[in-house]
Write a structure and sequence with these properties.
heterodimer; A: 245 residues; mainly alpha; 0% strand; extended; B: 217 residues; 8 helices
Chain lengths: 245, 217
């Protein structure tokens, strides 16, 4: 109970502090409320609310998290309307039927529109089977496009290696390492042959290459997150508090 | 009825799959425009799928509110966020949704001042969790774990100024790791994944893989 009260006091104190800081900044004219000030205060509030999770899971974080989910969903609905449904269905099929736009309605659009509506029938107990037609169209389309594109881009292109006998020795060594890495990793993932003897030895080299790749990916991802963290801290210190120019 | 529920979807998948796979090898204008039109149809159908996702999300939170499940009060904020964004989006700065999307509206304000900061902060929090997870699990117990640890440390130090301050070779070695052993292993993985994707695509086209049809008859 004492711990819970302490958490409430901490959250309440931070809220009061945030409020006071903004009032001071607005009254001194360091933030322009009707310019971009309100946006900066909102952004700072969401940033701090999200970071409050680092202390522990709390109501402020949960409110911000749920608002974020809602806003993201609303954003995608509106963007889908403006980028897909409005230009592809509304303006090409519906508007020309009811209004003389100088363009004939494109009735071929009825086909994907119907399939799209069928997809929404997933929630109807009686007509849910119609959504299978839409999924079959999308899945078949994806499967058909995948086969030739993957063969070309991710198999044939990836099997193209530079010459092992380059004019420069370091380049030749690198080319050899790439060849060795690809072959050994493929052998490691080839489970039809028992990993013993030569195959076992080569697959061990494959594991080393994989470990280097996983380590590199981990390091790269950590630094990408760090970059985002620096961006948020910069936003708080520079854009909101104006302590950094 | 079984014909409509099972045979027709399998036939659609087969026809679409075979047609799009062969289309790639036909360098004719008609073939190119077919790909363009059908891909756009796919995007249009995908546009309707957004409403499927929205229904699913709203249904989940509505159920939480209706049954007064633990934390149901927070679900109200999902509707609040979505409602405000959709209203601003459809209002479209006074031009309404049937006109072209306007610039500098409240909808854009919501995007830049709510979604972008909240999303970036959410992802940046992962930096703390990854660091704490790495501290607890990164132990050089085996040769493989040691290789992974060294590669990660070099790549991390090679990307920050302190790495260059320690040794000017850190960025060079980090770049080499990324472009030679990392690239080789990623190529191997990519080739394996592609063979798997092609095999799955063939199974879908020939009706062996039917999970996309869902349950029931």
């Amino acid at each position: 109970m004492i711990k819970k009260n302490r958490d409430i006091y901490i959250i309440f104190s931070i809220f009061i502090l945030f409020f006071i800081v903004n009032i001071v900044y607005l009254s001194l004219g360091w933030l322009d409320l009707w310019g971009n000030g309100l946006g900066i205060i909102t952004g700072a509030a969401f940033t701090l609310a999200m970071y409050s999770f680092l202390y522990k899971d709390n109501p402020v974080f949960k409110i911000a998290e749920n608002l974020f989910v809602g806003v993201a969903m609303g954003y995608w609905i509106v963007i889908t309307w403006f980028n897909i449904l409005k230009p592809d269905v509304f303006e090409t099929l519906i508007v020309p039927i009811f209004k003389d736009t100088g363009k004939a309605p494109q009735f071929t659009i009825l086909f994907p529109t119907l399939l799209g509506i069928f997809m929404l029938l997933r929630f109807s107990k009686k007509l849910a089977w119609l959504s299978r037609w839409s999924f079959a169209f999308i899945v078949g389309l994806g499967a058909g496009i995948t086969i030739p594109n993957f063969i070309h881009a991710f198999i044939l292109k990836q099997l193209t290696f530079d010459s092992l006998f380059s004019t420069s020795i370091p380049v030749s060594i690198n080319n050899f390492l790439v060849l060795l890495g690809v072959v050994s990793v493929l052998i490691y993932f080839f489970f039809s042959v028992e990993h013993k003897g030569v195959v076992g030895g080569v697959s061990v080299i494959g594991v080393w290459f994989l470990m280097i790749a996983f380590g590199a990916s981990f390091g790269y991802t950590v630094m990408a997150r760090m970059s985002l963290l620096i961006g948020r801290i910069q936003f708080l210190i520079r854009d909101w508090l104006g302590l950094l120019q | 009825m079984n014909f409509l529920k099972r045979t027709i979807p399998l036939a659609i998948a087969f026809i679409m799959g075979v047609m799009m796979a062969f289309q790639y090898y036909v360098p004719h204008e008609i073939s190119q425009s077919l790909l363009k039109v059908v891909s756009r149809w796919g995007i249009t159908i995908g546009g309707f799928a957004v409403f499927l996702g929205a229904y699913s999300l709203f249904h989940l939170h509505m159920t939480k509110i209706r049954r007064k499940l633990p934390g149901w009060g927070y679900s109200i904020f999902v509707f609040l966020g979505a409602g405000i964004t959709i209203i601003f989006g459809l209002y479209n700065g006074g031009e309404f949704f049937w006109n072209d999307k306007q610039e500098g509206t409240m909808f854009e304000w919501m995007y830049f001042n709510v979604q972008v900061p909240a999303g970036a902060t959410m992802f940046s929090i992962l930096a703390f969790f990854m660091a704490s997870a790495a501290y607890r699990t990164f132990k050089a117990r085996t040769n493989e774990a040691t290789i992974l640890l060294i590669a990660a440390i070099i790549v991390m130090l090679g990307r920050v100024p302190i790495g260059t301050m320690i040794s000017q070779y850190f960025p060079i070695v980090a770049d080499w790791i990324m472009s030679v052993p990392n690239m080789a292993a990623k190529r191997g993985i990519l080739i394996g994944v592609s063979i798997g994707a092609i095999a799955t695509s063939l199974k879908i086209i020939f009706g062996i893989e039917r999970a996309y049809l869902g349950g029931g008859d």
